[in-house]
Design brief:
Elements lengths: L2 H5 L7 H8 L8 E6 L6 E5 L5 E5 L9 E4 L17 E6 L6 H13 L4 E6 L5 E7 L3 E2 L4
Parallel strand pairs: 1-4, 1-5, 5-6
Antiparallel strand pairs: 2-3, 6-7, 7-8
């Protein structure tokens, strides 16, 4: 561990996952979502038994992957991402909320942690996604 990484803190909501990784454990899904500048909404829409849309407090139950956030106002370089080593990482971002240079900065930081896979999910472009690092080709884009 370098002295630089000792000064970095974990991103919000990463403590449980980081503690598991320190014990050489991993999430069953092998996947973690890193949300950039936005946390999960405090409510979501679900479909009731009668087919009607109902707004429910809390995150949807279908969100089964660990999630962390890089909050607005924080620099991606402030955080320690080593807990993502060897995991499949999805960076979720909202293009209307985040500058491309900020997204690239986060992606560079996450790549330093050596995830198994790194993908970007654009939450506003019909949930379009792309690989930054894949299993078959390694790092696929220049950041």
């Amino acid at each position: 561990m370098t002295s630089h990484s000792k000064t970095r803190r974990l991103p919000p909501y990463a403590r449980t996952l980081a503690d598991l990784r320190q014990k050489r454990m991993r999430p069953a899904s092998m996947t973690c979502i890193v949300r950039l500048d936005a946390w999960a909404a405090p409510e979501h829409v679900t479909i009731a038994d009668d087919g009607a849309e109902v707004t429910v407090a809390g995150r949807p139950r279908s969100v089964c992957w660990p999630q962390v956030v890089v909050p607005e106002g924080a620099q991606p370089s402030e955080f320690d991402y080593r807990f993502l080593e060897g995991l499949d990482v999805v960076v979720a971002h909202w293009r209307s909320n985040t500058r491309p240079s900020r997204l690239r900065s986060l992606l560079r930081e996450v790549l330093r942690a050596d995830p198994r896979v790194l993908a970007v999910l654009d939450m506003e472009l019909e949930q379009r996604w792309w690989f930054v690092k894949s299993l078959t080709r390694g790092v696929e884009v220049q950041l």
